[in-house]
Design goal:
alpha+beta; Beta-lactamase; Lipocalin; 2 domains; 13 helices; globular; Beta-lactam/transpept-like; Beta-lactam-related; AmpC-like; CubicO group peptidase (Beta-lactamase class C family)
């Protein structure tokens, strides 16, 4: 049964307008066919129209591509997931010598290495950018002990990209092109801005004083490429997804494709991204149905990919500003209900009946690379003040944001973004060894001052 693209083009436009999204593309994979829709403009400054062949930054969905490259190398016998990385990268040096000796590729793909994850050091545009980046990880904090918890880690995927380079003898960008883009027959998937310029490419938009403006920079540093710099179309992205739904096709072994979607680790926060993680894929349970996928966020662009393996079904949404999360939520709820019968769960919000929780034990300063979170008790209850620090602060130039917090359970709160109105879960917990953390925005941030 074909996808009714006219209907979904109308719904994309209606919902994108509601949520101030300047431009977006939507792709639906059903019964082996891809239906596409487009809305809006690529750039508010130029007014260039979005078409279905427009390229958007897919952000962290790139991590699944990097994980796929890793699994290809495992298929080729060049890499073992549970072998210490120093067997491939003897020059690797992390801040904790024991982690240096023990960290494996499985730790990187499952976000359990504990390496501080949001280090976006710009090491230049040369092919040696990842080599330089990995050298700099010697100064990166160990955010949590190896395997002690789960925390989203961009740094680990840049490190994985460097491993790919050592094993293939070329750049990560070359590996993406030669081992994925070309074999899959993709014609509009690139990794570098000078390649994106050859296509109809979106720019990001950020919100300041309630108005949308073109983002101050187009993309992220090249050193973060394996974590988030692929630029693509919904059709190319869904072709990649179909390869995984088809058991790897000619690109990946069936065993490796299956392993990527299988349960590897539970998440401390089961309300933000899913309930567990595979080898690159996030995993969620929607009314008893297993869904895999990934989201991506770059500077002013957001992407969303969900696969329902039991039906061979997938949906991709690429946006360039506004409240992309709300657009995703409402649009995917309609698509999955009408085309699969699977309900999309509602995001966690404030309870209908207030929950009485003493927030005093959670008051303090939580900090890691790029983020400082201060939990305090204000006139109307607990609040979280979030500051972006380091290189990302210089790029985004965002002011600190204060989130009102509402209790859901003794160790669980939801924090309302004053700009978008979205609710973000904050889970407070401690490791078996006693260290206290807050899990917010898919990251585990340690308490550094109470």
């Amino acid at each position: 049964m074909t996808v009714d693209t006219e209907h979904w083009t109308r719904r994309l436009a209606e919902l994108a307008e509601r949520h101030d999204v300047p431009g977006a593309t939507l792709g639906i994979l059903r019964d082996g066919e891809i239906g596409e829709a487009a809305y809006g403009v690529l750039n508010l400054r130029t007014g260039v129209e979005v078409t279905t062949d427009s390229l958007f930054q897919i952000g962290s969905i790139s991590k699944v591509w990097t994980a796929t490259l890793v699994m290809q190398l495992a298929d080729e016998g060049k890499l073992q997931l549970d072998a210490p990385l120093i067997e491939v990268l003897p020059e690797l040096k992390l801040s904790d010598p024991q982690v240096t000796a023990k960290v494996t590729m499985r730790h990187l793909l499952t976000h359990t290495s504990g390496i501080d994850g949001d280090i976006f050091t710009d090491t230049g545009r040369g092919d040696d950018c990842l080599s330089k980046y990995v050298t700099g990880l010697a100064d990166a904090a160990q955010n949590h002990p190896l395997e002690a918890t789960w925390s989203y880690c961009n740094s680990g995927f840049s490190l994985a990209g460097r491993v790919i380079e050592k094993l293939t003898g070329g750049s990560w960008d070359t590996a993406v092109r030669e081992k994925l883009v070309t074999p899959l027959g993709l014609t509009r998937t690139v990794t570098l801005p000078e390649e994106a310029l050859l296509h109809r490419a979106a720019v990001g938009h950020v919100t300041h004083d309630g108005k949308q403006a073109v983002a101050p920079v187009w993309g992220i540093p090249r050193s973060a490429g394996p974590a988030g710099s692929i630029v693509s179309t919904v059709a190319d992205l869904l072709t990649f997804a179909k390869m995984h739904l088809d058991g790897g096709g000619d690109v990946l072994s069936a065993a490796s494709a299956a392993a990527m979607a299988e349960h590897q680790v539970e998440l401390p926060d089961k309300h933000t991204l899913g309930d567990s993680w595979g080898l690159g894929w996030e995993r969620a349970g929607w009314d008893g149905h297993r869904v895999i996928g990934h989201d991506g966020n770059t500077i002013g662009q957001a992407s969303f990919l969900r696969l329902l393996p039991e039906q061979g079904f997938a949906v991709a949404l690429l946006t360039n500003g506004g409240n992309g999360a709300k657009l995703y939520e409402e649009l995917y709820r309609e698509i999955f209900a009408e085309l699969t019968g699977v309900p999309v769960p509602h995001p966690l919000g404030p309870p209908s009946t207030p929950v009485d929780v003493d927030p005093t034990p959670y008051v303090g300063v939580y900090e890691r690379a790029s983020i400082r979170q201060e939990v305090s008790i204000g006139e109307n209850g607990p609040v979280m003040r979030l500051c972006i620090t380091g290189p990302m602060a210089e790029v985004l130039q965002d002011e600190p944001v204060t989130y009102p917090m509402v209790a859901v359970a003794p160790d669980l709160f939801v924090c309302q973004d004053p700009e978008t109105g979205n609710w973000v879960p904050a889970t407070f917990y401690q490791l078996p060894t006693g260290e206290k953390y807050v899990h917010f925005g898919a990251r585990a941030t340690p308490l550094c001052a109470s």
